[in-house]
Amino acid sequence: MKKIVSSLFVLLCAVSINPTRGQSLASGTVTYESESLSKMNMGGQQLEQKMNLSLTLDFSGNYCRVNALLGGGSQEVESGGIKLNGIPPQKKYYVPGDKAFYQFTLAKGKSYAIRSEPKNITDLTMTGKKDIILGHTCHEFTYKSNGELITGWYTPDLPDIVAPHEVTGVPGGILKIESKNYNAMATSIKAGSAASEADLKLPANAVKISSVDFAKEMTGNR
Q1: Deepest in the core among 140, 176, 189, 220, taking most CB within 10 A?
Q2: For the purposes of burial, counting CB atoms within 10 Å of the CB of 217, is it exposed (0-12), middle (13-18) or buried (19 or more)?
Q3: Per-residue pLDDT tens over the stretch 43-63
């Protein structure tokens, strides 16, 4: 009897920890923790910039919104051992008609939507390996970006707009990405988006603009 009760307790704990286990979700919220490493030259000195991001991705239908908080909540970026503070959270929206993400920002009293192209995977290789991440069966894949080998895991339980770092091109949502300079891992999945579909759409008053034209707009060289 004790063994049966113990087994039931373990099962209930597993279900509560992974409430979406094995479900195909049309809407929901996925959170990620990610880390990236980049190099820069300052005054002839080569510095490494380490950036931690906490991502919250809400999706419903063909729409999704990503809230990215630098420093995993501390809003700090480590650059050559120096802590850079005061960097505001980023908010991005996926516009299905444009098949692109837009970063929403307020500047000079106007709302802007700065376009960033999704990083489409074209040289996809399926390894045949599988893993279970947060209760979902995931398939391993690899591809190359700027000569660097990237390894990832996707699940067909989630739509293909669900991914960290705007990576698209696999038949499902990406829950894990690993490379030499960038790593991201899903830490939770919840069924049902915390936001309505209307809230996941790019604000209508935002002016769509490229990153180049936005820089010109800010410097007055447009």
Answers
A1: 189
A2: middle
A3: 677 777 778 888 999 999 899
Residue of 147, 211, 208, 145 lying closest to 177 (CA atoms): 145
The DSSP H or E segment spanning 218 is helix 211-219
Task: Read off the pLDDT of each residue in 61-84 and give the average, rounded to a whole number.
Answer: 61
Please compute the mean of the pLDDT values over residues 155-160 and round it to a whole number.
Answer: 94
What does the alpha-carbon distance between residue 95 and residue 118 come to, in Å, rounded to a whole number?
A: 11
Spatial CB neighbours of 116, under 8 Å, sequence gap ≥ 6? 92, 100, 101, 102, 103, 166, 211
160: which 2 tokens? 């293909």
Q: Which residue has the tokens 């069966």?
A: 137
Cβ neighbours around 186 below 10 Å, total: 26
Distance CA 7, CA 55 (A): 35
pTM of the predicted model as reported, rounded to 2 decimal places:
0.77
Q: One-letter amino acid identity for 212?
A: V
C-alpha–C-alpha distance, residues 23 and 19, integer Å: 9
* Core vs surface per residue 2-39: b (16+ CB within 10 A) or e: eeeeeeeeeeeeeeeebebeeeebebbbbebebeeeee
Report the relative pairing of strands 167-168 and 119-120 from DSSP bridges.
parallel
